[in-house]
Design brief:
heterodimer; A: mainly alpha; two-stranded antiparallel sheet; 6 strands; 69% helix; B: mainly alpha; two-stranded antiparallel ribbon; heme (chain A); Cyt-d_oxidase_su2 (chain A); cell membrane (chain A); electron transport (chain A)
Chain lengths: 379, 518
């Protein structure tokens, strides 16, 4: 094992970040396209053109989500266990919304009846819009702390309710996340379509880009006033993970501390702004590929900002702050983290290579004429 | 508050969603190889009919695959959602194969399935075939990693309990990967999938032949399915026997229950073909047995005894007692007792920790564990006998029945007269649901037979659940039943619609039944 335990724990914080960013960029753009589907496409041919921009790719993209979940299970079992069971109804809502995607994509165009097709269009809308909204709300709650504690056997007990998740700050985060993903979908759609769809996608990019900038700014100001969390006892990053061995206090503005301690980290929120603004600019100018790259960088900045603000916390507890889960005390064993590190290091570049190849093979504009020619085989 | 009822509901939800998921998985695993065979024939011979076969059966494959993906996400979510303590307790080992499955296999499969459907005009013939092959390999790798995870639940090798972190931790990754239980399950399960794929193509082709439509297309499909299916069912049976042998070594309770062996017989033990097990009196009210067979299958020797249920319960009673001691010491250590003698005693009994945890179902603390409670906990280590005994026999009987059908199908394929043999075609058609019933029975035996554990001998099921309310479980269960029923209706409707349309649905103009619309 080349890395000592604290280093590999830190690497895994970064890798989970990479997987979440990968999920948001890859699955995000097809979710954004799904969200825009009922609005950007007029008539069945246009809607099919929109669906077929992501038709060959959504399935592979969704694996970012599945692998992200698996990686959190493997690297941070306590986080996986506590968050998935605590956010039970929110996770069910994500899961059930996702149900609409595989069947929506694959079954929609296999029957020609207009009611059938319109129903699945809204199904794809739900599958595209609900997960980013709920993930945003979930992050909004993580930033404020979540009501859970452990008993002495480390059984987690969640004491909040589903409705408690829907507080104003969390909803604002939901808006940020939805705007971010919809902007991303819009610039992708511009890149792969033409004429009317292109123009509608461009309008959507402007609207959701502006919403994202406004939402980011509002959340950035608001977060100064919500209580963050600070570890007051001595931290031993090399210790065997035990989330009950530390002291934690809540303190307003504590999420700003990392930026004060390491001003260089301010580049991360800066990236969120620069990326988003550049995406809007490039979309306006019609440079769609650059807009997609910029939007991806913006996403990296937004997710990175949440991560850096909370570090080393991953899931703070609002009711028993000392039970909060951090990078240091909720990780897997040294051996598991090391093996998973190698697995990720080997396979992630391979995945990027064949995914890029798949996009290259399918590159080009999807037109309504193409849809009509491939009536039987297209989605 | 974890009640028995909450545990039951959590189990019911997991079992229902897992079995539902496995309606789609075996067909994917099997059909993907059929597609490889058909497309290889196309690339080698250049005959366009093979391309049409790949595309048409691929269409049905896709309808099935969509629901496999949909229901697969449920499985990954559910460990965290409903089995939080399980996820914490064994995530260090169990999470890794799931994550590697994503990285190594599922990404590849899901990326290339898009190219399989959309890449026909953009890839060369050989490139497209490579895509199909990669998809097939990835599908099987996916099954491998999932069964490595599942195999570890049955036979938790390569791991040890850590007092400080209060969980199981990985000791040897290779032991987990090359776990004989996992490997035996993997080959048995994918072979069952191959059989399912073959039966699907065989049945639908037989239906076309009975209708005398698309005869050339159906004949070629039937032949491939007959050959592939015959090889697959043989391997299911041979490798199923291997699974049985492995179970003898690693899970005596499951074996004893599924064979209804209450007493330890002198080796080699006899095999109960039919029995009416009596749980209360721990005997069979009625049984027909063949001497020697059980001993031969289970131990592959003439002089190794297989312990019966009574003997296993008596042995486990000792382990429960030692396990109660282990739990007591564990609590003392976690409460701050750092006496090395306590630690040393704990290490000596820690292998029985899980057996001690079995008593937590009946006693709040270890001080309240009475000898009666230990008796009950030891008796709990045997899963209910009758359901296992019968589901196992149904699975085996169906396996041999499929062997007969595939043998005849292959024999007449070689002779070349199958297309006129209406009885054979009818039987082939009626056998369509059989592989599904058999694999559902097989999973029932594997997982119900693992009870009362989630991790065999390590973590009892009743401790593994999330601390949710029963109302939440009723709500989610109702939601799953609702969604899954609608999805199944839609999927079966589409499958029947496209199977009826046949290759004409491709719109090439070469087949019967060219549809008015797509």
């Amino acid at each position: 094992m080349i890395f000592d335990y604290p280093t590999i724990k830190l690497i895994w914080w970064l890798l989970v970040g990479v997987l979440l960013v990968g999920f948001a960029i890859m699955d995000g753009h097809d979710m954004g396209v799904g969200t825009l589907l009922p609005f950007a496409g007029n008539g069945d041919d246009e809607r099919r053109a929109i669906i077929n921009t992501v038709g060959p790719h959504w399935d592979g993209n969704q694996v970012w989500f599945i692998t992200g979940g698996g990686a959190i299970f493997a690297a941070w079992p306590l986080v996986y266990a506590t968050s998935f069971s605590g956010f039970y109804w929110a996770m069910l809502a994500v899961l059930w919304a996702l149900f609409f995607r595989p069947v929506g994509f694959d079954y929609r165009s296999k029957i020609a009846h207009p009611i059938w097709r319109k129903t699945w269009d809204w199904g794809l809308f739900i599958g595209g819009a609900v997960p980013p909204l709920i993930f945003g709300v979930a992050f909004g709650n993580l930033l404020q702390g979540v009501p859970f504690h452990f008993d002495n056997n480390l059984v987690s007990h969640y004491t909040g309710s589903f409705w408690g998740l829907l507080n104003p700050f969390a909803l604002l985060c939901g808006v940020v996340s939805t705007a971010m993903i919809t902007l991303h979908g819009a610039v992708y759609l511009m890149h792969r379509t033409e004429d009317d769809i292109y123009r509608r996608a461009r309008s959507a990019a402007m609207i959701f880009g502006a919403l994202l900038v406004a939402g980011l700014t509002a959340a950035g100001i608001w977060v100064q006033f919500i209580p963050g969390y600070v570890i007051t006892s001595v931290i031993d990053p090399a210790a065997l993970p035990n989330p009950l061995a530390k002291e934690v206090v809540r303190e307003a503005g504590a999420w700003m501390r990392n930026y004060q301690a390491m001003p260089l980290t301010l580049l991360v929120p800066a990236l969120a702004y620069v990326g988003t603004l550049a995406a809007i600019w490039f979309a306006w100018r019609g440079r769609t590929l650059m807009a997609f790259v910029a939007s991806s960088l913006g996403i990296t900045g937004v997710i990175g900002t949440a991560g850096v603000s909370m570090f080393p916390f991953v899931m703070p507890s609002s009711t028993v702050p000392s039970a909060s889960l951090t990078v240091w005390d909720s990780a897997s064993s040294h051996l598991t983290l090391t093996i998973m590190f190698w697995a990720t290091l080997i396979f992630m570049p391979i995945i990027v290579v064949y995914t890029s190849w798949a996009y290259k093979v399918m590159a080009g504009k999807v037109t309504t004429a193409w849809v009509r020619e491939n009536n039987r085989s297209a989605y | 508050m974890v009640t028995d009822h909450l545990v039951e509901l959590s189990r019911l939800q997991f079992a229902a969603t897992a079995m539902y998921h496995f309606l789609f998985v075996p067909l994917t695993i099997g059909m993907v190889w059929m597609l490889v065979i058909m497309e290889s024939a196309y690339v080698m011979t250049g005959k366009v009919i093979y391309k049409d076969m790949t595309k048409f059966w691929g269409k049905l494959f896709g309808i099935n695959f969509a629901l496999g993906v949909t229901t697969g996400i449920t499985m990954e979510f559910q460990f965290g959602m409903n089995w939080a303590y399980y996820s914490h307790y064994v995530g260090d080992i169990f999470g890794a194969p799931l994550a590697i499955e994503g990285l190594m296999a599922f990404f590849l499969e899901s990326t290339f399935i898009g190219l399989f459907f959309f890449g026909w005009d953009r890839l060369s013939r050989v490139q497209h075939l490579m895509v199909t092959i990669a998809m097939a390999v990835a599908t099987n790798l996916s099954a491998l990693w999932i069964l490595v995870a599942n195999g570890w639940m049955q036979d938790p090798v390569g791991a040890a309990f850590n007092v400080e972190t209060m969980r199981m931790e990985l000791v040897s990754f290779w032991d987990v990967v090359f776990n004989p239980t996992a490997q035996a399950k993997f080959v048995h399960t994918v072979s069952a999938g191959y059989t399912t794929g073959a039966m699907f193509v065989l049945s639908i082709s037989a239906w076309y032949l009975l209708r005398r439509r698309d005869v050339e297309f159906a004949k070629r499909s039937f032949r491939i399915a007959a050959a592939f299916g015959f090889a697959s069912i043989c391997s299911v049976i041979v490798l199923g026997d291997e699974s049985g042998y492995v179970v003898t070594e690693s899970q005596q309770t499951k074996l004893a229950a599924m064979e209804a062996m209450w007493e330890t017989e002198p080796a080699p033990a006899s095999f109960n073909i039919v029995a009416i097990p009596n749980e209360a009196e721990m005997k069979n009210d009625f049984a027909i047995h063949i001497p020697w067979v059980m001993g031969l299958i289970g131990t592959r020797s003439l002089d190794t005894e297989i312990p019966g249920i009574r003997e296993i319960v008596a042995h486990n009673r000792e382990r429960v007692e030692s396990g109660v001691e282990a739990v007591r010491l564990l609590h003392a250590i976690r409460a701050g007792d750092d006496d090395p003698a306590v630690r040393e005693t704990f290490e000596r009994v820690s292998d029985d920790l899980g057996f001690g945890l079995l008593t937590t179902r009946y006693a709040e603390s270890m001080d309240k564990v009475t000898p009666e409670i230990m008796d009950r906990a030891a008796r709990d280590t045997i899963p209910p006998v009758a359901p296992l005994f019968w589901t196992f026999r149904i699975m085996v009987a169906l396996g041999f029945a499929m062997l007969v059908v595939f043998s005849l199908a292959l024999y007449h394929s070689i002779r070349g007269d199958f297309a006129e043999r209406n009885r054979l075609l009818k039987w082939s058609m009626w056998f369509l649901p059989v592989p599904w019933v058999a694999s559902q029975m097989g999973w029932f035996v594997a997982e119900y037979g693992r009870q009362p554990w989630t991790i065999f001998g390590v973590l009892p099921t009743h401790m593994s659940v999330s601390t949710l309310s029963e109302a939440s479980l009723y709500g989610s269960l109702a939601g799953f039943i609702g969604f899954y029923t609608v999805l199944l209706v839609v999927m079966v409707y589409l499958m029947i619609k496209y199977a009826r349309l046949g290759p004409g649905s491709l719109g090439t103009g070469r087949y019967a039944n060219e549809p008015a619309h797509a």
